[in-house]
Amino acid sequence: MNNFLKKIIGDFADKKEWRAMEARAKMLPDDYRFAYKEIKRYLWKSSGLVVIDPFKNLLDMFEEGVANGKQVLEITGKDVAAFCDELVRGEKTYTEKWREALNRDIAKKLKKQ
Prior knowledge:
With 113 residues, the chain is mainly α. The protein has a single domain (2-112), classed as c-terminal domain of poly(a) binding protein (Orthogonal Bundle), CATH 1.10.1900. Helix content is 78%, strand content 0%. The protein is elongated. InterPro entries: UCP029876. Pfam families: DUF1048.
């Protein structure tokens, strides 16, 4: 997974920014840190994100939740997967990029014929 993350991070974000975010995540209490890790894993697997904004937003929400004394599920709700899906709604994904490339490449090639 590390190589995968390195490849992704190199493609869409400054590594320094990613490391700073991961450092922020390490400062969260155990339950928040566990939720962040699992949500991150879910998002990588299910959405193929190409941006880090949802992770920054998640960290902001979690840090605010900690500051306000809330439990993790008060932030995410009991359906954490639905929370994740909403978190990334409208974001660019690899699947979307591949679809666009396929359509573009075929249209370009067929126009030449």
